[in-house]
Amino acid sequence: MINVIRFPDRAGGAVPQRFADARVALQLSRADVARALDVTGTTVGYYESGDRKPDMGIILKLATILRQPVSFFFHEGTIDVSKKKVRFFRSIGPKSNKLNLALDVRTNWLWEFVQTLLQAGIRLPTPNVPLFDDVHPDGEYLLKQIEYLASRTRRYWNLSDGPINNMVALLESQGIVVCRFEIGSEKIDAFSCWADGRPYVILGSDKSSAVRSRFDAAHELAHLILHRDISEDDLESKGVRDRIEREANWFAGAFLLPRGSLFREFYSTRANHLKGLKQRWLVSMQAIAHRAKDIGAIDENQYVAFRIQMTKRKELTREPLDDVIPIERPGLLFNAWKKLVDKGRLPEPDESEWMGVSLPVLRDHIGGPAPRNRAPPSLVLVDG
Amino acid sequence: MSEAHNPAAELIETEFPEVYRPLVPSALKRAYASADQAYERLDFLNTPSGRFHRGDLIVLATELEFERLIKERHLPFEACWDDYASPTGKHLVMRSPGAQITINQVEYPHQKPRLAVFRKLFSVPNTEYLFEEWNEERKKDDSKKHLVLLHGHAHLRFANIAFPHPTENKLIWWTDDLLKLPHEVAQDNTKAKGEGPIASPEPELVEEVIKTVRDTEGR
Fold first, then answer.
1. Do A264 and B192 count as a contact with CB atoms less than 8 A apart?
2. What is the pTM (predicted TM-score) of this model?
3. pLDDT in tens, A65-92
4. ipTM above 0.90 for this complex
5. Which of A131, A210, B36, B79 is the most buried (most CB within 10 A)?
6. Torsion angle (degrees, nearest 10) of CA A136, A142, A144, A145
């Protein structure tokens, strides 16, 4: 028998959960992976449960299929994940839903990344999300209660009633970890969670409209403030999800466009006026008109007329100024990571990975400029 | 030289303070826009006779806007719907502690609105009386004085708060044009007037924090 090159049996050190995480993050089924590996789905199940150890050849294939560096599967993780308590706010379906599971895994990775930064000696801003326990919703919040809480949140952060310069930077300055990556679904624009006492907001990079993404950020802030008492089980109910989404939208509108300010500045649904307001407040024309309806500055008929006008102009999905206003990018984690790398506290990334994290995932975590990502050297035949 | 005493200006200043006036232009603009949109929506207004009622619709829409501002507590008044002297209709009266303010559409900025009975009852002259006891009596009079919020005309060219003369067809004193208060959002001057940070925070190394604390303690 010809003895082909065999890799040493390092596979014994692979962490089974990592196989499952990498698969779930890509929203693949076991059958998908099994087909690509040319094994059965049950075998993949064994790999993920640890009942069977894949050899190094399989792990190399898995690394390609699951788009992870090989070291990812051996990364034990020095973090005590059991200590983490996560509470998610997202708008769609049951938590067993494929997309939700994928987002859970990716949030887990983000959390691990933050722990790595903290353990390497960085100090992130202390979480400073207000807790208002003197306003009690009777089943659900009223708009006026939400107006009040949005206004108090502004005061809590020493803001008056003007436009917010940079929603992402504001959240980061208050100790909220903000991350932007491709969520890969039209149904979910952003989500948030509390993990280990720190709030996280994840914004989709799928949206090209900066102002809508700012609204998403304010919407997630609403969940962090208003819905601390909502459990993961509560979110299984569509009624609860619809309610908290409605409340979060009210809060986002009230936070970004305080009632008094809008009454002072809004007077027409004419496109030119709304465009001016959009540029000043960095809120979409549709959100401004909706907010004007919520506070009674315009009635339902005027709002409908505005929507018809936008539809005729084909501006519902892409509004004026959407191509001009720049997307707000998170920078806190990048700044932290770069400082630690510059000080030699953390290694620099190599060609394909950084501490068991693939470069695309690292890029998702830190946003900002892409880390070093040279193409791997390749061999070519030369005449000679 | 000391400034001349002007009870009318003082009354307006007290009863409709400047801080609330920026709400006026937007409210009036919304009202005019609402009236125009009614014409777009309702066919029966788009008749030769219907077109003559635009002013009436503006009056109604304006009253609604101000009632809303009061209900929302943006304006510190009490909103009352009072009868006209002959009970042919009602109109909005905004009551402040010392005045009742009506909203009137007029053709020119400094035009006194047409005669109304309540205007006669609640107006006062702006000059001092010859006899001090009369002045004292007037000071003691705690009945609400009448002020008017004037606006007009077809395309909303002006708005001011005025003190009408009790008997003559003129105003005693009026504010500057409220439409000139800053309220319009111009697209070219709206940058960088916001609040909060403009860039992500720069986190510190724990050792830097400790060093800073030690340095501070050492001082």
1. no
2. 0.79
3. 999 988 888 877 655 555 666 667 776 6
4. no
5. A210
6. 20
